[in-house]
Design goal:
Elements: E1 6-11, H1 22-25, H2 44-50, E2 56-62, H3 73-84, E3 94-97, H4 106-113, E4 119-123, H5 146-153, E5 161-164, H6 171-180, E6 186-188, H7 199-213, E7 218-222, H8 226-229, H9 234-248, E8 253-255, H10 268-278, H11 284-298
Parallel strand pairs: 1-2, 2-3, 3-4, 4-5, 5-6, 6-7, 7-8
Length: 301
């Protein structure tokens, strides 16, 4: 079965010569270890090169940690200019920007993001753990914090969605957020980030995924499974892909590369060929949903 036309629902671009990304230019102590392989400019032309020969038809760009001390709308404006430029093939067709939703100016920032035609939502990474190495935020209470919720609710004023990134032990709290604010659509990033692949870790992940799936406003992006697998192959990631589709249902699932970050673990083609192999026994209509039409619906592209 041939790889069907697909939308990459989670990738990044960065121009290190002209735009501010301190974590790439200066480096940080990251849990993935040495990430020098992608600490270089990665433009839409590089994505097209990596996808050469593959039926990539549209894409969704997710914020790439533009300097938080700078104006985050600058990243959205740059990406809109990329999408509007000759040779981009319209990519990225959807832009998920950044805003610190706990800040008083979050509603204003969201309104400014929304002035750009391809903007669709916000990602504010909420990963928290006891060990600072695994944290993307200094607080573990944001999903119940009044100031943060004020910014979060303002997404609904602009038909914006929220890209949710948390660890498995935070998934049940995230389900509470989804129930409390049903007017904001949530897209769970990176398959719920199953860090621990032993029996206890997988059980914790499954329980959290089931809690989130028991909502009306949460979908999920299957991606970044190479990050914790130790090695990348279709056989290695297959059960997480199939479990996610079983738990959420095929209508709530999308596929993504997390490129160029996931070049640490795999080539671009290998990621999509793995998805193709894993879903080879799915019906044609279900494969179309996973690879393309769900993304068109959720991100309105």
């Amino acid at each position: 079965m041939a790889l069907p036309p697909f939308i990459d629902t989670h990738h990044h671009l960065w121009d290190l010569e002209n735009n501010p990304y301190p974590w790439l230019t200066e480096g940080i102590d990251h849990f993935v270890g040495d990430y020098s392989i992608f600490r270089r400019t990665y433009l839409i032309s590089h994505l097209h090169r990596d996808a050469e020969g593959l039926p990539l038809v549209k894409s969704v760009h997710v914020q790439a940690e533009w300097d938080h001390e700078a104006d985050p709308v600058g990243e959205t404006a740059w990406l809109q200019s990329v999408a509007d430029s000759e040779g981009s093939r319209g990519m990225p067709h959807a832009i998920v920007g950044f805003a610190d939703l706990s800040e008083p100016d979050a509603p204003e920032l969201i309104a400014r993001h929304a002035e750009h035609a391809n903007w669709r939502g916000i990602r504010h990474m909420l990963n928290w753990a006891e060990d600072p190495k695994w944290r993307f935020t200094d607080r573990n209470d944001l999903m119940t914090d009044g100031d943060w919720l004020r910014g979060y609710r303002s997404l609904a004023d602009h038909d914006g969605s929220f890209d949710l990134q948390v660890w498995p032990w935070q998934l049940e709290d995230a389900a509470g957020l989804a129930h409390r604010v049903p007017e904001v659509p949530i897209v769970l990033d990176h398959t719920g980030m199953p860090r621990d692949w032993d029996d206890a870790g997988v059980e914790l992940w499954r329980d959290g995924m089931k809690a989130l799936a028991d909502t009306d406003n949460v979908s999920v992006k299957i991606s970044a499974l190479g990050m914790f697998s130790g090695e990348f192959s279709a056989d290695r990631i297959k059960q997480f892909v199939l479990d996610t589709v079983e738990i959420f249902g095929v209508d709530k699932c999308m596929l993504a590369s997390n490129y160029p970050v996931d070049m640490l673990f795999s080539s671009y083609a290998a990621i999509w060929n793995a998805y193709d192999e894993i879903t080879s026994e799915f019906s044609e209509s279900d494969r179309d949903k996973l690879f393309k039409s769900n993304a068109e619906r959720y991100y309105r592209i």
